[in-house]
Amino acid sequence: MILLFSGSITLSYIFILHKLQDTQKMEHRYTIHEITPFTRDWSCKIQVVDKIRPKISRDHRVNFQTTIVQDENEDQICIITYGPEVAHYDNLFKHFHTYLISAAKVREPSRFAIPMHNFEWVLDTFSIVEEVIENNEEESMLPLPSRLNMVSFADIEKQIPGDEFDLVAVVANCGTMKYQGSENRRFQEAILIDDKKKPFLFTIWGELADKDGTELLQQLHRYPVIVAKRIAISNFKQGQRTTIRC
């Protein structure tokens, strides 16, 4: 009887200890809007929704990359990586994959940052990023984003230059690389059509044209359907056309 009673106490103690540890973990799990520069020992489950190609700072001293992520509420924030961390996290972060992030630096965005949130996160060698894999018994993957700032082709010309929106369209045609201005800025033009067969001229600039434009040309015979995120109207040669920031 004594042994059974003792074993019961031991099992109860282990159960309570595990529940306490689970509670402590939950207390440290925050959403994006709950995390500030004063938040300590936080972790957040996020999903990668966009990756901006690596760039060089204005003073040409360091390269950096911006990655846009969102949490379970689909609130979004920018993650910045610098120098040697750029290649590491560029390989680690995959579109629409889920990750647990902790020990990131939280700071106010610079005036050149993408207007996304009151703060931005910076990942370095001390940050902890763990990918949540499929069929994980302890952590579930976040569902695919349900929020798209969709604009119909009929309303594109009503957009204010600089405002960002999303498009879903079929690529009907795609031209070869062209160059514009004294700086020979690279761009590529594509004709998109929507579900009402309305066409629109779409322009891809810079490094995006080098990679994505080439891929569109290779897939053109299949009339690929694309989701273009964070695109904007710009004035060009006394007309309007959509352009992807790069």
From TrEMBL:
InterPro entries to which the protein is assigned, alphabetical: NA-bd_OB-fold
Gene3D superfamilies, alphabetized: Nucleic acid-binding proteins (2.40.50.140)
This protein's name: Uncharacterized protein isoform X4
Originating organism: Nicotiana tabacum
